[in-house]
Amino acid sequence: CYELKGAVHLPRLLVLSPSNTSIKELKPYFESLTNLTASFLCLFVDHRGTGLSSMPSDDWPDPPAVSVYADDALAILDHLGWQKCHVLGLSFGGMVAQELSLTRPAAVESLALVCTSASVGAGGRDLGRGYPLHKLLDAPVESRITDQLLLADMRREAGWPYESKEGEAAMAYLTQLEQTMAQTPGALAGRRWQYTARAAHDVTARLQALADVPIRVAVLASIHDGLAPPRAATALSAALGSADRNGGPIWFECGHWPNLAREQPGQFAEALKSFMLQGAVANGVRVNSQALGPTINFDRRRRDDCIGETLETLTDACLIL
């Protein structure tokens, strides 16, 4: 399932959604990014197993792989006759965007990778990789939601989901989504298929190939993100090598997507627009750090330590958007 938004004469932008996120859930955030949506013809896609797209069946590939989602997106581009477009990958969508670009680089005008990583950790919290969400699949619903909310923004205290109006609203919203998913045939299986594919994602050794093709690539990351930690962003940029034309991640002082759209919509939209249409990010941030924070295990009691370790590495003089 897909949906187009914008004037047909505008530059084309493929938007690849985060984990377990449908067009219905994603679009409101983009509608608030007026500087962006007014500049592109946006193509939104429901990944297989989410929204109005097909749910898992016996004819789906086995084992699950992110490359399958990339092939789905390319099939939609072919259906629409889009030979080339800008590509925006958000979180899990960034992983799909990496595979898509490696599969068919000629289809990509520019590639913006937001709050994502080149690989996923096998367990615990390896800050150089994306957080292993698949480890939370079998946890109780309330525990899974709470952990995801706390990991999404490392500034949040352990009691935030229950002790703040914003946290309570987020808990209620995600709990309702869980209930809806449980009542939708195939939805839980779709999430498990996606998380299993995500768990196997590792294109670190392959990304350097993008340096040999004329694709502009930018990595946009958040310094308080615990799902795609800052160190994972620097690892992604390093894996891209000279393909990352910005010389390092573009940093935002917030948490995981969709906090970029909530907290810094203007800066986020302008950064994407200037990168895609002009080839450079105005007021971009370059952090020359070998590693952002050590590899540690997830322990909620160490939340403040995690935050401190991350921020202490951002010692170079820089502007954070």
UniProtKB/TrEMBL annotation:
Residues 30-271 form the AB hydrolase-1 domain. This is AB hydrolase-1 domain-containing protein. It comes from Prymnesium polylepis. The lineage of its organism: Eukaryota, Haptista, Haptophyta, Prymnesiophyceae, Prymnesiales.
